[in-house]
Amino acid sequence: ILNVEQSPQSLHVQEGDSTNFTCSFPSSNFYALHWYRWETAKSPEALFVMTLNGDEKKKGRISATLNTKEGYSYLYIKGSQPEDSATYLCAFPSISSGSARQLTFGSGTQLTVLP
Amino acid sequence: EAEVAQSPRYKITEKSQAVAFWCDPISGHATLYWYRQILGQGPELLVQFQDESVVDDSQLPKDRFSAERLKGVDSTLKIQPAELGDSAMYLCASSRGLAGVSEQFFGPGTRLTVL
């Protein structure tokens, strides 16, 4: 069973604080790493798909880094705003049956930004 | 902006009844996924279609769950009979390519409650 671990499970920060959380995944046979944001009552939304060791991606105040050799990715949010409150999920594509890949998701980090 | 449509948004049923969920992916997306998400956990893949063909249904409980995508466009997921443990969020997603480096676009989900 593939293990994709996210920490912390939940996080409360004050508006304006910067924060980060971690996704750990198997370092062997790396293929890609996905980050999604899921706001309450909305659809999960893709943030990044990362494929290269050392890759860093940015979207507004949110950025992510990737270390495939040690099997982790960090998601950073600079100057958190209440609208950043959401569950942040990472997912790791793995081979399931035949040659098909499926995304294995972590349990997510639930971020609450307090005004 | 194109979106993945799902219906119904909420469904309450009694155990042993049949339920069905519908998904319409983004036009042109060949790959369609059904996920189940239990509170506090990440989404878990139930079935993956490439056009009208199933490419992965290894985690679909086939004694009670069925899924079809007859014309390679919209899809239906059915549970018969529903059990208490089936209470969860059922998410549909689509992507241009197969799971791996293709970002997935999610619908709003169907929240199922089995009484």
Structural description of this entry:
The complex is a heterodimer of chains A (115) and B (115). In chain A, a hairpin with a 4-residue loop joins strand 7 (62-67) and strand 8. In chain A, 0% of the residues lie in helices and 55% in strands. In chain A, strands 2, 4, 5, 9, 10 and 11 form a six-stranded mixed beta sheet that branches. Chain A has a five-stranded antiparallel beta sheet with strand order 1-3-8-7-6, with no helix packed on it. Chain A has no helices and eleven strands. With 115 residues, chain A is mainly β. In chain B, the strands form two sheets. In chain B, strands 2, 4, 5, 6, 9, 10 and 11 form a seven-stranded mixed beta sheet that branches. In chain B, a hairpin with a 2-residue loop joins strand 5 and strand 6. Chain B is globular, with a radius of gyration of 13 Å. Chain B has 115 residues and is mostly beta strands. Chain B has strands spanning 5-7, 10-13, 19-24, 31-37, 44-50, 53-56, 65-68, 75-79, 88-95, 105-106, 110-114. Helix content of chain B is 0%, strand content 48%. The interface between A and B is medium-sized, with 28 and 27 residues.
Q: Please, what is the average pLDDT of chain B?
A: 94
Structural class of chain A: mainly beta
Question: What's the count of strands of chain A?
Answer: 11
Counting helices, strands and paired strands, the structural category of chain B is: mainly beta
Shape category of chain B = globular
The largest interface is:
A-B, 28 and 27 residues
